[in-house]
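Researcher: Quick test of sequence recovery. Tokens follow.
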């Protein structure tokens, strides 16, 4: 009975705490809902504001709960001071990586040097971007595995980005001095054209003791088939030279393996097996970079949705001053945009 009376007497002192907890829970829920809705418009994978806002609101909520606790006079100040010391120590210890990676993520986003789906190379890492976050960037490697790179690492090292508008691919090959340079250039140029490259060209890279090093290059417009195009260029170069009777091997091998000088180091019966391209057959890159492909498509939809939202806002402003037939046309345009936005939001939500 005494315990019940004490509970009834002390209950009013807990009312501020209960009210604060309710307000905090409701506020965090509303903030989470609002940020999720906002992220559908600006892109969930590009939204750096959401984690920062929720982190700040959580800290403010914790302080509010401590203040509302029914503690003796002076204890609240001591508890807040202790909390400040703990947070200061945590920030001091983790700021080197935590804050640095966050700032690096914001810097990468503001500079816009690459986006999801782009090929990038950083030191020994090469692959397509499959995810971008506040603290790290994820790339899908050529073996289909994923590599997570801290954003601080990306801004501390040179990043090579393959341009989506096209890139130059090359293949190096060494031939003997008995092969005419003009003939080799013509053959390698033809090989590059057969490999599907535009504007091919050939350079002499080095004059060795026994071989001449050539580099054949060409412009590849569809960068998504980068690996397949490189392989095709090498295969077509080898086939074209063999068909012309030029062996792709250093004459130094002949000095080590006694064979007749007239014998060529290439297949005895070489049926021209030009690498055929089956348009219906999926490229290996589609399997290798499946996640990066999905990330690129998702980011494209998110950017398209963002443009539609901005366009709708402009039409709403015009609607306020419109009259008669113009007003009806703007209303129909807004309805059309709403339909497109709904379809895009559904497709983004299904990813």
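Model:
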């Amino acid at each position: 009975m005494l315990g019940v009376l004490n509970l009834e007497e002390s209950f009013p002192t807990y009312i501020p705490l209960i009210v604060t907890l309710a307000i905090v829970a409701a506020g965090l829920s509303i903030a989470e809902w609002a940020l999720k809705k906002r992220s559908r418009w600006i892109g969930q994978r590009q939204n750096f504001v959401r984690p920062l806002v929720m982190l700040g609101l959580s800290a403010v909520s914790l302080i509010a709960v401590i203040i509302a606790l029914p503690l003796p006079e002076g204890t609240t100040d001591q508890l807040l001071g202790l909390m400040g010391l703990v947070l200061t120590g945590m920030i001091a210890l983790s700021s080197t990586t935590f804050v640095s990676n966050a700032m690096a993520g914001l810097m990468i986003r503001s500079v816009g040097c690459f986006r999801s789906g782009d090929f990038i190379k950083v030191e020994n890492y090469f692959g397509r971007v499959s995810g971008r976050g506040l603290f790290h960037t994820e790339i899908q490697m050529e073996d289909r595995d994923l590599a997570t790179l801290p954003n601080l690492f990306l801004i501390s090292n040179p990043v090579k980005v393959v341009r989506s508008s096209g890139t130059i691919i090359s293949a190096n090959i060494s031939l003997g001095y008995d092969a005419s340079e003009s003939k080799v250039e013509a053959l390698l140029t033809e090989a590059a054209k057969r490999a599907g490259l535009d504007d091919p060209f050939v350079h002499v890279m080095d004059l060795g003791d026994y071989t001449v090093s050539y580099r054949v290059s060409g412009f590849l417009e569809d960068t998504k088939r980068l690996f397949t195009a490189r392989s095709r260029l090498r295969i077509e170069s080898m086939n074209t030279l063999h068909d012309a009777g030029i062996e792709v091997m250093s004459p130094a091998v002949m000095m080590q393996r006694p064979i007749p000088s007239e014998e060529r180091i290439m297949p005895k019966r070489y049926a021209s097996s030009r690498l055929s391209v089956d348009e219906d057959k999926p490229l290996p890159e589609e399997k290798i970079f499946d996640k990066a492909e999905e990330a690129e498509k998702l980011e494209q939809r998110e950017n398209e949705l963002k443009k539609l939202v901005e366009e709708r806002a402009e039409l709403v402003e015009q609607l306020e001053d419109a009259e008669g037939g113009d007003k009806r046309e703007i209303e129909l345009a807004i309805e059309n945009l709403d339909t497109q936005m709904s379809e895009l939001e559904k497709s983004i939500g299904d990813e």
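The chain has four domains: 2-94, 102-161, 167-280, 289-350.
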